[in-house]
Amino acid sequence: MLDKCPVTMPERINVERALKWQPYWFYKRFEFLSDDMGEAFYNPFRVQMFLYEFRVFYPQVDQGNYNGLVQLELTNDNSDLNFQVDPTISFHICSWGGDITASAAPAPFDLKALGINFSAEKLGSIWKFNIPFEYNTPIRYKISLLNGNRPAYFDVMALTYIESGRI
Amino acid sequence: MYPLVDKINVDVMLGIQKHQWPSKVLIEGTVQASEQEFFSRHISQMGAFYCGFMTGTFETLSGDPIVDDGIDHLRCQLGDTTGNKKIFDDFIPLSHFLSPGRRKSANSTTLATDDSSHQLFYPIELKYLWEKNSDIQLEMKNDSDTALSFEITFHGWRIRQKGV
């Protein structure tokens, strides 16, 4: 989908095509009250959205010497499109940016090797996807703290694209 | 395109550049203490602006006397005035999508001992086309008791449209 977005010179940018896709960023901060938290972003539009990137942030604790591991699970209820992610799949993530302290390096994450029909690639500590989800269906995420000190909160961002012309 | 591998066709590139060329749009300002304010930049009649990436910096000040506490007190919601579109569903801390991010501020009373500005330059992808005569709009919230400045640059391409 996004491969069709013309972004670099010297390609000619097609205005109509560029107008078709619009980014939409979800954001949520939640207190991390236990070592296992689950939340979801719901598609509020009556058109298909595509999950493009998913990021998790957490603040420094223990004077920045945070050594805990965070586990993240992403699932999608939309089984009609056969893009359901096995909820047993999880991967380790790094924090990124601002006053965030880096944690352990991400573990290898290859969904294709697991037979799942979409691609994911790691860019720094940002995970890229191309997962469609329909109106009122969620992208669920579950964060588990495996060890280390518990941060006060987590910030989660899901970067999506929607077909803007149909909103 | 890789200039040392691919042959550059000057005539083709010049032809394209008549209609589109690299451009940057800067939005900067100061959000007063504990206030919520709008900042915008008009995309002129000249043509559309296709954004590819964002970079930016901001201050992290608070208190009396003013000190740099390193905490991101600024949050923003990005939008397009055409159709009143929101691109962020909520107010997102600037530290989550801007690099270099925090910078030192001359307004700090402890400037000499403040941490150096964050140097990581990591443009964040934001592919969005603002049509001509639209506005890039930022709604900013400042949770600090001190006025805070920010600068955000949108890196992209200006596209001359038909009839212009």
How would you sum up this structure, described in words?
- The complex is a heterodimer of chains A (about 170) and B (about 160).
- Chain A has about 170 residues and is mostly beta strands.
- Chain A contains 1 helix and 9 strands, in the order H-E-E-E-E-E-E-E-E-E.
- The radius of gyration of chain A is 17 Å and the shape is elongated.
- The two termini of chain A are about 20 Å apart.
- Mean pLDDT of chain A is about 60; it is low at about 1-5, about 60-70 and about 80-125.
- Chain B has about 160 residues and is mainly β.
- Chain B is about 5% helix and about 45% strand.
- In chain B, strands 1, 3, 9, 10 and 12 form a 5-stranded mixed sheet that branches. In chain B, strands 2, 6, 7, 8 and 11 form a 5-stranded antiparallel sheet that branches. In chain B, strands 4-5 form a two-stranded antiparallel ribbon.
- The two termini of chain B are about 30 Å apart.
- The chains are: A mainly beta (about 170), B mainly beta (about 160).
- The interface between A and B is large, with 31 and 41 residues.
How are strands sequenced across the largest beta sheet of chain A?
1-9-3-7-6
| Shape label of chain B | globular
Count interface residues per chain for the largest interface. A-B, 31 and 41 residues
Question: Which blocks of ≥5 consecutive residues of chain B have pLDDT under 50?
Answer: none
Give the overall silhouette of chain A. elongated
| Range of strand content of chain B | over 45%
Helix content of chain A: under 10%
Topology:
The complex is a heterodimer of chains A (167) and B (164).
Chain A: H1 15-20, E1 21-31, E2 36-42, E3 49-57, E4 69-76, E5 91-92, E6 121-123, E7 126-133, E8 138-147, E9 153-163
Chain B: H1 10-17, E1 20-31, E2 36-42, E3 47-58, E4 61-62, E5 67-68, E6 74-80, E7 85-86, E8 92-93, E9 100-102, E10 124-130, E11 135-142, E12 148-160
Parallel strand pairs in B: 3-9
Antiparallel strand pairs in B: 1-12, 2-11, 3-10, 3-12, 4-5, 6-7, 6-8, 6-11
